[in-house]
Amino acid sequence: MPKSQRKPGKFWPQVRALIWEKAQELYQMEQAKNMGKDFKGITATRKELREGGYFYLAKLIVLRNLWRERKGFPMLEEEEAQVFQEQTTTKNSLLPFKNPKPSNNKRKGGRKENA
């Protein structure tokens, strides 16, 4: 079917706009970080965003967030905030993810140990 007869899509036009927006946001965040107080809110062209890798990174972030939203998982920003809040409220937050060693020292596999 020729391109002129195709119906416009519903998913990619919306997602593409989100990707460009996120790419611009990533670019400006990095510029602000590098320039400090001298940052003036410079916007990049689409070519600069592609060459700098911001478009690709934004595409990954946006598609991952859409997938997580569709599956019912929290967004990454929400999840990071929740994890941070949990870590700051726990009493023993030095090693919160360390698994305790099993107290059972027996071998697995059914072989008997020679004593």
Can you count the helices?
A: 4
Strand content: under 5%
Q: Which of globular, elongated, flat, extended, rod-shaped describes the shape?
A: flat
* Coarse structural class: mainly alpha
Give the SSE string.
Answer: HHHH
Instruction: Look at the structure and give the mean pLDDT.
Output: 77
How many extended strands? 0
Secondary structure: helix percent: 40-55%
Structural topology:
Layout: H1 11-35, H2 46-51, H3 54-71, H4 76-89
Helix pairs in contact: 1-3
Question: Would you give an account of this structure?
Answer:
The chain is mainly alpha-helical. It has a domain at 18-86. It has 4 helices and no strands. It has helices spanning 11-35, 46-51, 54-71, 76-89. The N and C termini lie far apart (77 Å). The model is unreliable at 88-98 (pLDDT under 50).
What attributes does this structure have?
mainly alpha, 115 residues, single chain
Write a short abstract of this structure.
This protein has 115 residues and is an all-alpha fold. It has four helices and no strands. The chain is flat and about 75 Å long.
